[in-house]
Write a structure and sequence with these properties.
By secondary structure, this protein is mainly alpha-helical. Helices cover 79% and strands 5% of the residues.
Amino acid sequence: MMKLKAALQYRMIYQLKSLGIFYLYFIGFAVVLPGLAMFFSNTSATAESELTLPALIFAIILSVIGIRSDFKLFIQNGLNRLHIFVSNLISNFVIANVIVLAMAAFRLIFKTFFSDHFDYQFMILDFYQPKTLFSQYLLLFLIIFWGMALGLVIGLFLDRFSFIVRLLIGGGVLLFPILFGTVFTTLSEAGKDNVLTNLAHTLGITENGLKAGPLMLTLFILICVNLVLAYLMNRRRELQRIA
């Protein structure tokens, strides 16, 4: 238990430092540079930015790097594979909450004090319009945590399989949309409508507009699937030098 606690503490410190670097870059590109441009051009234009996508991309990258880079260190210090997986899972869960809280606070500050010059948005919330503050938070958290769970799968996939196997599986994943499109075109009109309707419902797209509940359920299922895949790949993971 002490080793798991030490590993979790190490992961948290590493991820919080990485998060700080991300926000420095984000503030530089989304606040400082647009602010300087507006100052020197003496314009009254409003700088706009979407907050969810950059946070999601960073969450995926952070999770990929973390699951790949710490394995050798933890194994050499006596942690088993289960504890390594659990430490990554817990730290990713915490960091996903930190990301959502930080982005929400960032948006609130600029909306309160600098709304004339900066407009930062969570477009997913504008589209789905969850009715309660908790449901808004939960939707954002599920999106970010799904990205981190996906990052675990990607990182383990890159570390677990050889280049040839990665190439074959990656090619299969890339070709899947083509296969799906080919099969889809062979369906009857009723079958096509049924497939499209079911896909729309998984994203919360209904006849009465967008619903956040089905989308959150889909994200939760995807998270569970990704975590199961990550756990299975981590069970027999071998010690390898990272390319």
